[in-house]
Q: What sequence folds into this?
């Protein structure tokens, strides 16, 4: 990942001070990555057919595919996109680091990196810079002579062309460009109106920033959130929560946080075991839970908000970063929560140290939501050390006999995910697995059932759907509509399962 030269800044409403430095290096990185989707319309497909000297039907069959997407109103529609290579690692037209149809590439490609979502704020431009080596970041006044600097107004036409193209219009880049020129002659204020509408719908404000972390208030399509990011990996949002009322920019007043729901699908998924634990007949005491990697305590405070003391009696939030803990208390409502709810206890230590210190404790739910910081052997979460038998056996030691270990796993490939499962199988023999678009969540059981006992996945799903907490607040039942919950069994034992 490219090192960023400066910290992010608040952009003024006019953006007059903004200078965007970009020169394409022809590295081809914008054409790589799994899940790439380049929209193409019929006219662009015809241009590609001419450029490749292929019959139109052959080009469509071999180089494009039809996918289903949702529009801004949530309505499903079909869309034509360029195919990826069979390994899903790059665009089918990329040869080495060069585009084989460069002069006839679609509008989506021509307008990169000037997409509206990249230019909402300085933060978004930084995130884009981490993916594109052609973007340069400088302190004001430190620009290098060989770096081309554009004003915000310089790139607005490209943003507009991208927006029109993504809306589904059947025009080529050149046609859209001519239409925009004609429109400006008829309505000279059109550009300013577009910019005003863009800023009204999308904006970010820096609430706090230092060398390590940044706190942002985000406003996207009338939805306001507060997020925490580490400056050395801005593409990963560490914590995020909806806010009901934004704080005054000139005061330190804390906003009112909306804890009725969760921003991240993975946090919703990690709530799922509570549907099974709260239904246990043998559970005569309130549950005890711990979250390792609590961050700004979004998940812990959500659980305390919606589960009564009779349901959840104690929650340990473990976060080793003193910086994050200070931020959580001052900018995410944790200070007030500690004073308000005696069930919450913050531990400023690593998950490993926390577990070692636990004596005569039986956790019903242990959540492992720790990001590694840097990918190691293709694993981004959890850290490799937390997949070693020594650590996993510690989780077994502190779990109640019926306890569940819920782990958020992020890997770069299916092969690496298989390796992670092999590590888990050294200690655990059975559980459930929920496959999310970017994560895989494992729910590993600490029970002592006989090897031949099948896992009735439908029964676990039923308990989720019958739980008011799961359906109304955690919204895990909605996750089950799009994400697959399956039985997970150690390959060493190969226990039978039932759907």
A:
């Amino acid at each position: 990942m490219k090192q960023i030269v400066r910290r992010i800044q608040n952009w003024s409403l006019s953006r007059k001070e903004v200078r965007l430095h970009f020169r394409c290096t022809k590295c081809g990185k914008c054409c790589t990555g799994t899940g790439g989707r380049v929209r193409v319309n019929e006219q662009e497909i015809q241009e590609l057919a001419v450029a490749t000297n292929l019959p139109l039907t052959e080009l469509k069959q071999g180089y494009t595919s039809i996918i289903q997407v949702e529009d801004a109103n949530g309505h499903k529609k079909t869309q034509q996109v360029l195919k990826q290579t069979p390994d899903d690692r790059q665009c089918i037209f990329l040869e080495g680091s060069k585009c084989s149809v460069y002069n006839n590439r679609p509008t989506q490609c021509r307008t990169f990196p000037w997409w509206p979502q990249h230019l909402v704020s300085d933060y978004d431009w930084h995130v884009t810079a981490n993916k594109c080596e052609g973007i340069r970041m400088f302190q004001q006044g430190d620009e290098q002579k060989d770096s081309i600097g554009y004003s915000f107004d310089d790139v607005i036409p490209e943003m507009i062309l991208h927006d029109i193209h993504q809306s589904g219009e059947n025009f080529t880049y050149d046609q859209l460009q001519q239409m925009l020129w004609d429109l400006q002659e008829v309505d000279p204020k059109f550009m300013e109106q577009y910019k005003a509408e863009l800023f009204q719908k999308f904006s970010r404000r820096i609430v706090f920033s230092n060398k390590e972390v940044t706190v942002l208030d985000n406003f996207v399509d009338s939805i306001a959130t507060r997020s925490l990011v580490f400056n050395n990996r801005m593409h990963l949002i560490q914590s995020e929560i909806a806010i009901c009322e934004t704080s005054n920019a000139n005061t330190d007043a804390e906003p009112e946080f909306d804890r009725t729901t969760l921003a991240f699908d993975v946090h919703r998924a990690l709530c799922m075991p509570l549907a099974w634990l709260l239904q246990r007949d043998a559970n005569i005491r309130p549950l005890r839970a711990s979250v390792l990697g609590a961050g700004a305590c979004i998940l812990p405070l959500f659980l305390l908000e919606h589960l009564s003391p009779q349901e959840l009696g104690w929650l340990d939030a473990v976060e080793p970063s003193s910086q994050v803990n200070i931020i959580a208390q001052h900018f995410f409502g944790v200070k007030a929560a500690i004073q308000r709810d005696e069930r919450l206890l913050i531990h400023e230590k690593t998950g490993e140290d926390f577990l070692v210190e636990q004596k005569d404790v039986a956790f019903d739910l242990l959540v492992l939501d720790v990001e590694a910081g840097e990918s190691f052997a293709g694993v981004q979460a959890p850290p490799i050390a937390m997949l070693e038998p020594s650590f996993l056996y510690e989780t077994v030691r502190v779990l109640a006999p019926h306890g569940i270990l819920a782990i958020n796993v992020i890997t770069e490939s299916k092969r690496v995910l298989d390796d992670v499962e092999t590590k888990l199988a050294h200690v655990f023999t059975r559980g459930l697995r929920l496959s999310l678009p970017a994560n895989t969540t494992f729910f590993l059981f600490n029970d002592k059932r006989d090897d031949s006992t099948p896992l009735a996945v439908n029964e676990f799903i039923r308990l989720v759907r019958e739980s008011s907490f799961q359906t109304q607040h955690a919204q895990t039942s909605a996750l089950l509509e799009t994400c697959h919950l399956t039985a997970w069994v150690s390959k060493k034992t190969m226990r039978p399962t039932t759907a």
The radius of gyration is 25 Å.
